[in-house]
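The following record pairs a protein chain with its ligand, 2-phosphoglycolic acid.
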Amino acid sequence: MRKPFIAGNWKMNLNHNEALSFIKDLSLRFNNKNGITIAVCPPFTSIRSVALAIEDEKFKSKDFNIKIGAQNMYFEKSGAFTGEISADMLNTLGVEYVIIGHSERRVIFKEDDELINKKIKAALSNGLKPIFCVGESLETREKGNAVEFTLNQVRAGLDLISPDEMAQITIAYEPIWAIGTGKTATPEDAQQMCNSIRSKIEALYEKNVAENTVIQYGGSVKPSNISEIMKMPDIDGALVGGASIKTDDFLALINY
Ligand code: PGA
């Protein structure tokens, strides 16, 4: 059985102080009635203090089980890579997840499938669980190539990843045209793509691997549309940007 998984991608939002206030506020009103997996992905600068703040709150209430994710990492172990962060550096901070291949990394920072595949491998070999993002642009969708394009990203990103390693990977389908725009894919469109992704995984691996892979939808997910999205059979969770940095919204999302 796949456990629902909602992750907040804070992007370049919330400074160190704001991050700590967010966790404090969240802990005071925390409720996880669905018993889902929850993660927050702060900027690198607040990962350590967010991790400590969560540990502190968890000591008071065991239910406050929030995992930490990073938003990016580099695939090399160490060395002359100014400005980069390695998987090992994240692991030793208590980070469990890492977003890899987010469309903002692909488009703004020119990350390609090959680099993303290397990052996924490096994350896995350092005990991190990748949240591997895929999804098409509006132009690609309008040309009718959305499925082919997205499934190609899936195949390339998972090159030489073993079936066992697949158990550690979450796939996030995030159509670029729906990110931060207020335009959500209809639950049916999102379902159709997530179903195609699952079939692709079955073709690359086997049925069992496909059935156990957690697939999130991302792109303007908010309290008003989350429950419709979560009803879809192939959508197991959400990767949320804008609505994840306000505690009211984040609480509403996790209790969809
Ligand atoms: P959004 O971002 O929820 O603000 O659309 C989602 C994402 O980019 O992960």
